[in-house]
Design brief:
Strand content: under 5%
Number of strands: 0
GO cellular component, one term: plasma membrane
CATH architecture: Up-down Bundle
Membrane topology: Multi-pass membrane protein
Structural class: mainly alpha
Order of helices and strands: HHHHHHHHHHHHHHHHH
CATH class: Mainly Alpha
CATH topology: Amino acid/polyamine transporter I
Distance between the termini: 68 Å
CATH superfamily: Amino acid/polyamine transporter I
Helix content: over 70%
Main location: membrane
Protein name: Aromatic amino acid transporter
Keywords: Cell inner membrane, Cell membrane, Membrane, Transmembrane, Transmembrane helix, Transport
Largest sheet: none
Amino acid sequence: MAKADRQLTEKENSIGESSLKVENISFWDGVSIIVGSSIGAGILSLAFGARQAGFPVLVFWIIVAGIFTTISMLYLAETTLRTKKPLQLSGLAEKYIGNIGSWLMFASVFINSLGALIAYTTGSGDILATMLDVPNIVGSLLFFIPSLLVVWLGLKVTGVTEKVIVAAMTIMVLILILATLIGPGVKADHLSYMNIGFAIPIFSLTIFCFISQYTVPELARGYVQGDVKRLPRAIITGMIIIGILLILVPMSALGLSGPDNVTEIVTISWAQALGQWAFFIANIFTLCAFITSFWAIGESLLTNIVDKLRFPSEWDIKYRLISIAIVALPPFIIAYTDVIGFVDVLSFAGAFAGVIMGVLPIMMLNRARKYGDRDPEWTCGWISHPVIQALIMILFVGAAVYTFLEIFSILPSGW
């Protein structure tokens, strides 16, 4: 009888089939996907975005955004562990909060991803045009071809390549930071300046840097065949690494160049201040930051498209080509119309995605606890207290409201 009960429990908790393939990945593959998804356009824009508010304000919001975004990701982790069928965010939203919630979640993923991919399109084109003396659009194409190839090859390949490039990025940024501290050094007055009148807009930008909720269902697919408790551990580990890097890079760049001399893509002014030798390392780091984030975001967006549009399989060649086209074409079209600035697009994407990612995961978790179809191997515990959930909603919705009022010039610009 005990054996029969155990077999029944295993069957009830088993993972169902869907159009998304289950692939086993390692703990550090998962950490690298999270870090790679966030260490991209956002980290390169933080110093410029915070130049009027000041470094102390930036550090405060990095800590706040990091803590509450991590909690939101852990809500999604428990939600996925309460769900038999492998689903992406829009699929989970549809299951637990209905069709409207599903479309809002898909719109959030799409707009946040599109904002990042636009930034990578323009940024990579500028860098490769400078390095190789080619037109910007050619530089963008040289970046996109290998980027799309990895996305095409799927989650397992994405995890392995992320791990290699994230390690290389970490080494390069540490070289730049050490060269800054040992060489010209940082000036205390550049880092101590603070103007809280520009504080709130910085939160939207830091949200964009941390938003990795769309990677959680991806990682859940990679961990269900092993120890699924790797999922929350990978989320927390990855977010801590992101937070440290988000503080160190603006600290070095602002402390060295000062708020008046920092550029929108921070490595440009950083390399100029350090000398010609740093130009190569800084640009390679920037391209690596773009490509690792592109891989994680592109892979997640592709599978969200497959899930939301109910394609029969993510590996059906016809539907995979359609999904890749949706991932790749809009960024080029928008980027080369030159209608929005690098930092502005990140702030807008962060505000829109932030309000959705701040509210819907709370609703999904609470509904999954009532209507989930399997017993989770891990739960959020005290961090899902209603007070914490309310704080998340207030912070994320408040930042979004400010950003939208700023866009329509009702409130002053943050930068």
